[in-house]
Amino acid sequence: MPSTTNERACAAAASQPMIEARGIHKTFGRVPVLRNVSLTVGQGEVVALIGPSGSGKSTFLRCLNHLETIDRGFIAIEGEALAQTDAAGNCTYVSEAEVRRICRKTGMVFQHFNLFPHLTVLENLIEAPMVVRGMARDEAIARAEVLLDKVGLRAKRDNYPARLSGGQKQRVAIARALAMEPDIMLFDEPTSALDPELTGEVLRTMRALAQERMTMLVVTHEMGFAREVAHTVAFMDQGELLETRPAAEFFGSPGHERSRAFLNHML
Ligand code: ADP
Ligand code: MG
């Protein structure tokens, strides 16, 4: 077993990438939001995607699971192409059915939880497995209970989201994403909407997932989490991915002037 963070990152990169994004371009109207962004995430790798507000982090994440389309570039999930671009610059996606199937390999957790407010915690967890995967209700419930144990919220199974704290809501959102058994978890600032005293419980849940070798791409402003849990840090600014490096190296000496300025501001 690789022991150091660095060795783990190298081992992860050597196997088939879980996420491969190459040369992604994306424009909103006439504003370029992603400019030639490339990132590879290996199996079991935890990548922290950091950078100033408005740099394109959320847009990039949303492109990976087709919540946004790209204008140009290549995206593959576990070796299966989602979108590709020919030499003439025409970008094409695979069929809708294929897009849905491929995107089911990723689960996403949003800043604002996005739980269904009219459903209980348990119902939030069983909805997609039953509707999308056709799972029997009993099985969906049994699995949901295991996941609620895992995030420490079994006791809240019959509560509505409005009765939960922000940290509890986010742990439910993580469990709900896991209920679809994704191979990759995408997190978009999962603690940014939380009071500081509630971020710890969410970060602990994420750390436990990382320890189970879940492949994770995490947009975060939590530099402590990035330093301790992520193998790799990717720094974005103004639509460009300026550096992607092992976390220890990045925090030891960021290679780009703008990464340095950002870190000085954050730490
Ligand atoms: P980050 O997550 O790093 O803060 P975003 O990906 O949310 O950055 O945004 C990158 C840029 O794209 C910003 O300038 C933002 O205003 C713009 N943007 C994001 N979503 C949209 C949209 N749906 N329509 C137009 N502009 C958008
Ligand atoms: Mg964002």
UniProtKB/TrEMBL annotation:
- Tell me what this protein is called: Amino acid ABC transporter ATPase
Q: Superkingdom of this entry's organism?
A: Bacteria
- Pfam families from the UniProt entry: ABC_tran
Q: Where is the ABC transporter domain?
A: 19-263
* Entry's localization field: Cell membrane
Q: Which UniProt keywords apply?
A: Amino-acid transport, ATP-binding, Cell membrane, Membrane, Nucleotide-binding, Transport
> Recorded GO terms, molecular function?
ABC-type amino acid transporter activity; ATP binding; ATP hydrolysis activity
Entry's Gene Ontology cellular component terms: plasma membrane
In terms of InterPro entries, this protein maps to: AAA+_ATPase, ABC_ATPase_HisP-typ, ABC_transporter-like_ATP-bd, ABC_transporter-like_CS, MetN_ABC_transporter-like, P-loop_NTPase
Q: Which CDD domains match?
A: ABC_HisP_GlnQ
Origin species, per record, is Acidovorax temperans
Secretion signal span: none
User: Which protein family is named in the record?
Assistant: Belongs to the ABC transporter superfamily.
Stated membrane topology is: Peripheral membrane protein
Q: Which Gene3D superfamilies match?
A: P-loop containing nucleotide triphosphate hydrolases
Q: Does the keyword ATP-binding apply?
A: yes
Membrane-spanning parts: none
